[in-house]
Write a structure and sequence with these properties.
The chain is of the alpha/beta class. The protein folds into two domains: 2-116, Rossmann fold, CATH 3.40.50.2300; 121-195, Orthogonal Bundle (Arc Repressor Mutant, subunit A), CATH 1.10.10. Helix content is 39%, strand content 23%. The chain contains seven helices and ten strands. It has helices at residues 10-23, 33-42, 59-68, 83-87, 102-116, 144-154, 165-176; strands at 2-6, 26-30, 47-51, 73-77, 94-97, 121-124, 127-130, 135-136, 181-186, 190-195. A five-stranded parallel sheet has the order 2-1-3-4-5, sandwiched between helices. Helix 1 links the parallel strand 1 and strand 2.
Length: 198
C-alpha cells in the first residue's frame, strides 16, 4: 500500500511515516499543497491523508482532485465535527480530529480502504448508498463514519453519543438526494429510519 501523508507539521510527518512504513506500507510525505499536487500528478497512491489547513493550496481543491483520481482521502482537522463541516463540499471519505493516536489513525485508514473495496449497497428508504463510492446514488458523498452510523441504524443497533453528530449531516444529505427517509430519535427505541411524514 502507498500512502500520501500531507501536513504542515514536520514532526507529525516524520512520526507517521515511521509508523505507516512499519505497519501499513510505503509512505510519501508532503508539507504543503503544492507538493501534494505535484506528487499526485507523478505517482499513484492507495490513500491520501491531508491536513485540513495545509498551506499554499486549499485542502478542498486537493480533495476534489483526489476524488477525480478515485483515491480515498482522510482529512485531519483541529475543528470539532459538526453538520456544517460534514456537509461542506467536497466531502472527504473520513475526518480524523486531532489529537489522535496510532491505533485511531490506523483504524480510520483500514475502515476507509475496506469500504472503498466493498461491493456493498445499503438502503435508506428509497435511497441507495453505494458504499465503495462513499455516496448516495445520484446524490452527495458520505463519510465512512456516516455510512457506519447508517448501517448501525438499519441493523437496529444503538448509536454512540459521540456519533450523534452524523445524524444531522445524514438527514441533510438524504434530503439533498431527494429521499423521503430521515433518521429520528424515538423514545425507548433509539434512532430509526422513518419516512418524512411519520
Amino acid at each position: 500500500m502507498r500512502i500520501l501523508f500531507a501536513s504542515p507539521h514536520r514532526d507529525l510527518l516524520e512520526c507517521c511515516k515511521k509508523l505507516f512504513d512499519h505497519d501499513l506500507g510505503e509512505t510519501v510525505t508532503a508539507f504543503d499543497g503544492t507538493q501534494v499536487l505535484y506528487l499526485l500528478a507523478k505517482e499513484s497512491f492507495d490513500i491520501v491523508i491531508l491536513d485540513r489547513y495545509i498551506q499554499r493550496v486549499d485542502s478542498r481543491e486537493i480533495t476534489e482532485r483526489v476524488h477525480r483520481k478515485n483515491i480515498p482521502v482522510v482529512i485531519l482537522t483541529y475543528d470539532s465535527l459538526s453538520a456544517h463541516i460534514l456537509t461542506e463540499e467536497p466531502v472527504p471519505n473520513a475526518y480524523l480530529p486531532y489529537p489522535f493516536d496510532s491505533e485511531k489513525i490506523s483504524g480510520v485508514i483500514s475502515n476507509v480502504l475496506a469500504k472503498a473495496a466493498s461491493g456493498e449497497t445499503l438502503k435508506a428508504g428509497k435511497a441507495e448508498i453505494e458504499v465503495a463510492k462513499f455516496r448516495i446514488k445520484d446524490g452527495p458523498r458520505l463519510t465512512a463514519d456516516e455510512i457506519d452510523v447508517l448501517k448501525a441504524i438499519a441493523e437496529g443497533k444503538s448509536v454512540a453519543s459521540k456519533d450523534r453528530v452524523f445524524i444531522s449531516s445524514l438527514n441533510a444529505k438524504l434530503a439533498k438526494a431527494g429521499s423521503d427517509t430521515r433518521i429520528k430519535y424515538r423514545a425507548k427505541k433509539g434512532f430509526e429510519q422513518v419516512t418524512e411524514n411519520e
